[in-house]
Amino acid sequence: MNSLKNKTVLFILVFVINSSQLFSQSIIRHKPKTENTDIVSLLKNENVSWDTPGPSALQSMPVGNGDIGLNVWVEQNGILNFYIGKTDSWGADVKGNKGLMKIGGIRIDPTVNHFNKIMPFVQVLRLHEGEIWVTEGNGDKAINFRVWVDANNPVIRVETWCKTAFTLQITLNDWRLHNSEGDTVINDKSNITWYHRNSQYGDKHMVGLIFGASIQGKWLVKKNDTTLLSKNGKSHLVSVYPLTSQTNVNDWLKQLKRKIAFIDNLPYEQTRATHLKWWDNFWHRSWIFFSGDSAAKKINQGYILQRFVTACAGRGAYPIKFNGSIFTVDNPKLREVGASKIISVNADYRTWGGQYWFQNTRAMYWPMLGQGNFDMMMPLFKMYVQEAKNNAPIINRFYHHNGSYFAETAPFYGGVNYWGPEVKEDWTGHYFTPILELSMMMLDYYQFTGDKKFAKEMLIPMAAAGLEFFDQHFKRDSNGKLLLDPDNAIEQYWKVHDPAPDIAGLIAITTRMLQLPDDMTTAADRAKWARLRSELPALPLGKRDGETVLFPYTTDTVTAIPRNNENPELYAIYPFRLYGLDKPDLQLAITSFNKRLKHTQKGCWVQEPIQAAMLGLTDVAKDYTSFNLTRKDPQFKFPAFWAEANDYAPDEDNGGNGENGLQQMLMQTDGKKIFLLPAWPKDWGNVTFKLHAPYQTTVEGKVVNGKITGLKVTPAYRRADVVGMSAK
Fold this sequence. Notes:
The protein is of the alpha+beta class. It folds into three domains: 6-285, Beta-galactosidase, Chain A, domain 5, CATH 2.70.98.50; 290-315 and 320-333 and 356-364 and 605-728, no CATH class; 369-599, Glycosyltransferase, CATH 1.50.10. It is built from 17 helices and 30 strands. It has a 15-stranded antiparallel β-sheet that branches. Helix 15 packs antiparallel against helix 16, helix 15 packs parallel to helix 17 and helix 16 (618-628) runs antiparallel to helix 17. The two termini are 33 Å apart.
């Protein structure tokens, strides 16, 4: 990445503001007021700026509105490009490597009838505003772009301006137009409208799904089916309106026209102001800024940029895809995990396809609790609640009992296969843990927000269905204890006896469900959960190097074949939190962590940064978290497009676990207790932070020389629950 000196960036940005004749005044007049201008200033220091163009999508920047995401780059000839991703643009083969596809791409050429010189060049991601600015050239012929996706409406805006009149050429870039995937361009006099419609031969849930968009703007004329040309002028506005709908083409077009008419009827400056307000509110929900040396600053930037990438994709119809989110790009030199052959793929492609792996998907959502991004958690909850409902009758047909669960690996609509005890072992077959972890997360969501409607309509039905499944699906042993056999210890050990993750999850969930207010649950349910709680076996223990440690499943000696690089026994620390600071048997948990199987891999879905922080192991947490928040993919230019490891780049697992690890190092909560600096390294310098805690609480303050100062807890009575520690 090439960086500009601060003075150069400031000069160019000031020039851009002063030179904009059509758009800049809307920023000046309608910039939202903020309560803490220091946060705005700190964010500006984290803006990503480049002084060389592209040349390809591998050198793109992300921007988005939570559902629509763009990869933006500029070719060396000055043509601005972006790919359009969307959270619901599912292909016909949702399970395949093109399961979630791009809407398409756009090329905007400002060099038509204009002096073709793009240097000096600057491209800046402005985090606080949720937009990208580009300046090509200087003086009266400098061309400026502002690219943003309206935070409140499904529209992409590209504003361009220059002191000298120029002409734009806008071209649709759709690699599916002339191949077997057969996208269609609508015959329109003044706009470019195109769509992709899934065929009747794909996944039955995908049949008839249409996604596409329309490119429009004043004074644009049709040059050909895929190209628009503007009149000569000093400023231009290009708008792109994406839409996904499961219907026929005529109805899709009608829906699209209605949405366009609605958006175009809104005052432009008003939409701009509300967009800026949304992003300002987002950044003021929570923050972590710390100083320290250059390495520490790089870690902090990784955290901030991951928050931005998550916000760009976290409010759509479906959860964030762990394997690239909506920011996949074409890659001519892809080497898939475990493969020796290099292949060339387009931007629709992603390794591991369009299905959701819960273990991978959760990583982006746990840190949202501390960040206060509760709205972004709803797509996850809604999808899995619906999956559990869809799966319940299938499970009843298979096993003749009630309850439900969702598979570790499934498309967004769910589905499960039969996994009776006689069925051959498999990676994710006899694997029932995910519904327990999601229930844990939903219990936390309720504890953080106090949302009783959510608890009654989503949390309690989901958790109750999961507990019912375990209660009825498994037999009891000779002592009357639940016998989880056969049952996978996640993907690590297959068809084993009483795996630790499920026991830990059942202990945690039954305990917490019984703590819910009596008016939210029935006496019959409470009695059932109390009985199940009394029938749960103890967590497996064993000896390793002569010391007692947690075991991954109940056995005298761990002899099952390890299939993956995971430590199931540590699920009792995270995510189920039976062990931790100020809890019994902390040393047992620390010994178990220190004597875990020594897997060399870091990053991706590896949980060590979080587990180490929860045990107060500062050095280990620092090492793993630092790795997560600095391991950029070498092919990408954007510093928070993480390397694929086990997934696909940009790897969202990596960033999510890095966020979670960093937050747990700074602040942890247990019930009403709030622990500050439980695993914070002193050499990361001074810190200013604001994080969320249970019971609708926020904690704000600074760390100076390893000590908390200026602590502000809201509501104030929660100040008594804070346990202060020192950086180490």
